[in-house]
Specification:
mainly alpha
Length: 418
């Protein structure tokens, strides 16, 4: 019960859609957190790339969603979640129309139409995915307002904000909830009185230059993020990981994030090795060899890493009102790192020494019932399938490949437009 209450205590501090962002992040492929290191991963991701979550797709949704909500704010119409969903569904249809007509001319990142498979059966709509980011970037300025509260405020008003000629009816009705007023909003060409008016052309996901300029400003204003540097390089980003880009600011933090990601990979390979060993699924030698290759490729870098300073520093940094690295993280990371890089270079010996630490960590994170290395029944119920591992030395990319790289590329391409 003590372990469970600790996790509930942390969740209570996550407000609004950021909680749903964390939950949905964990539902994405490759994000299982059996060893409880996701908190440190998310701290670095939010520090480098604030306002993002893994289920985001394209930059233009940062403007699509405000357009829908602001339409209802100024219209005076009563609005509920069903109306918002209907507008988002109309948006999806128009995006799909454009893709059908211009499929071979759109950008390399032409994926990203949210709901293109599920359509009206979509479980998580674009506004819930992007709302926290819209607020974090300062596009929606009422940081303490949830979406539902904002809609309630709109619905309580008895007068329209604008008349049919776009003249303000009563300035006292202005909510000042958005970073821009209506006249500025009209610069985003897709914004119409009935918003996504149906026509034969559809709407592209690509940004106009005016939109890219605006998003560059909002992204670059995020203190200590990497956005400004990356956008100012004025080039699109392809394969590779962000810490390989020369000249990045926050060198020490980026190095620590990289090394933590490397270490995370080794811990995951160890965990998979012990799972396979206990399950007897024939993959024990496979993961042994992967761990050995990982160790040979990373040992020189990680042996030089001042991991003690890294751990100490991030015990003092808070994330959602708790230390980034808690006491339980400190002991686990210290013990496993020491066993891998300080006490032995023999692979079998390293794995043997870390087995008890990996087993205890999974038990701490998942509890008596769900921990497969601890509970024979949980192991028996497990089908023995292990997700495909990415062929690289790191475990965490901190949302770089999805969605950050695509969002930055969207802005850079938009800035190049006439």
């Amino acid at each position: 019960m003590g372990k469970l209450s600790e996790h509930i205590f942390w969740i209570d501090f996550v407000e609004g859609d950021s909680l749903m962002d964390r939950i949905h992040d964990l539902e994405q492929p490759g994000t299982q957190d059996e060893l409880g290191l996701g908190r440190i991963r998310d701290y670095f991701a939010d520090s480098f790339f604030p306002g993002t979550t893994t289920v985001m797709t394209r930059a233009r949704y940062f403007l699509f969603i405000p357009a829908i909500y602001y339409f209802y704010e100024r219209s005076g119409e009563k609005v509920g979640i069903d109306e918002i969903k209907r507008k988002q569904n109309e948006l999806r249809e128009r995006l799909e129309t454009y893709r059908r007509k211009h499929g071979n001319k759109v950008s390399a990142d032409s994926y990203g139409i949210i709901g293109s498979v599920s359509k009206e059966r979509l479980k998580r709509w674009p506004d819930s995915i992007y709302w926290n980011g819209i607020t974090k970037l300062g596009i929606f300025t009422k940081k303490e307002w949830s979406r539902s509260y904002y809609l309630n405020v709109i619905n309580r008003r008895e007068k329209r904000l604008y008349d049919d000629d776009d003249n303000a009816q009563d300035d006292s009705l202005q909510l000042n909830a958005w970073d821009f007023r209506y006249d500025e909003f009209k610069k985003f060409y897709f914004f119409k009185d009935n918003i996504f008016k149906d026509d034969e052309n559809g709407i592209p996901l690509e940004l106009l230059k005016s939109e890219a300029l605006y998003l560059r400003e909002k992204l670059s204003s995020q203190a200590d993020s990497l956005y400004q540097f990356l956008i100012n390089q004025k080039r699109e980003y392809g394969e590779g990981i962000f810490w390989e880009i020369p000249g990045l600011p926050r060198f020490d933090d980026v190095r620590d994030a990289k090394n933590f990601s490397f270490l995370g990979k080794g811990l995951w390979l160890s965990y998979y090795f012990f799972l396979s060993k206990k399950k007897k699924n024939g993959k024990e030698d496979y993961f042994y060899d992967l761990f050995k290759k990982w160790y040979q490729a990373t040992k020189h870098e990680l042996k030089k890493w001042d991991y003690s300073y890294f751990l100490s520093k991030h015990q003092k940094v808070t994330y959602f009102n708790k230390p980034v690295i808690r006491s339980s993280d400190l002991s686990f990371l210290t013990d496993t790192y020491q066993n891998i890089f300080k006490l032995s270079s023999n692979i079998s010996s390293i794995l043997q020494k870390n087995e008890i630490h990996i087993k205890n960590r999974e038990h701490f994170v998942k509890g008596d019932v769900r921990a497969k290395l601890f509970n024979d029944k949980a192991m028996e119920e497990w089908d023995g399938k292990i997700e495909t591992l990415e062929d690289h030395l790191y475990e965490y990319d901190y949302r770089w490949q999805r969605p950050v790289r695509t969002i930055i590329n969207d802005v850079i391409r938009g800035l190049k437009r006439v």
